[in-house]
Amino acid sequence: MSGNVQETIGDGIDEGKAHLNGLRSGAQKAASNVAKEVKHIARAQAEKQIDHLADQLTALSKALRSASSSVSSGKETSGIYGERIIDGVSQIAKSLKQHELEQIVQDTESYARARPAAYLIAAVAVGFITARFLKNMSPAGQTHKAA
Fold first, then answer.
1. The pTM is what?
2. What is the Cα gyration radius of the chain?
3. Which own/partner pairs from 94-103 qualify as long-range (CB within 8 Å, at least 24 positions apart)?
4. How many CB atoms neighbour CB 57 within 10 A?
5. So what's the pLDDT on residue 128?
6. CA neighbor of 58 nearest in space, from 106, 92, 30, 34
7. Whose CB has fewer CB within 10 Å in the chain, the N or C terminal residue?
8. What is the DSSP letter of 76?
9. What is the pLDDT of residues 130-142, one digit of tens each?
10. What is the pLDDT of residue 84?
11. CB atoms within 10 A of CB 86
């Protein structure tokens, strides 16, 4: 009878292990499905934001081009550099609209690896321009005070 009890216990342990393996497999599949869904949602949001950024850059380049043409004839040194900057902004907007998210990330990474100093300078310049732009967008009556 002792052998029969041990067999029953062994069978119960084996069944418990099989049940746990099934639960683990199910949990892994569920986690994988959730991760895929989160990745899909994040990608969709990133692509939506990239499209929005491209539209904003297009509008910015049009506004800059309009302001540039009304301010100067374009023959001065600052006018030439201004046109180059405007063309660059336009080109970035077109590139964002034409490429997939992975390609944009890959291009950015390769540019940063190939030209780290230029990438750093560009990042600082974009940060500075963004800060100035946001500062100028605040209502005239509001002032920001440091705490």
1. 0.54
2. 29
3. 94/54, 96/50, 96/51, 96/53, 96/54, 96/57, 97/51, 97/54, 101/43, 101/46, 101/47, 101/50
4. 20
5. 86
6. 92
7. C
8. S
9. 788 778 776 654 5
10. 82
11. 20
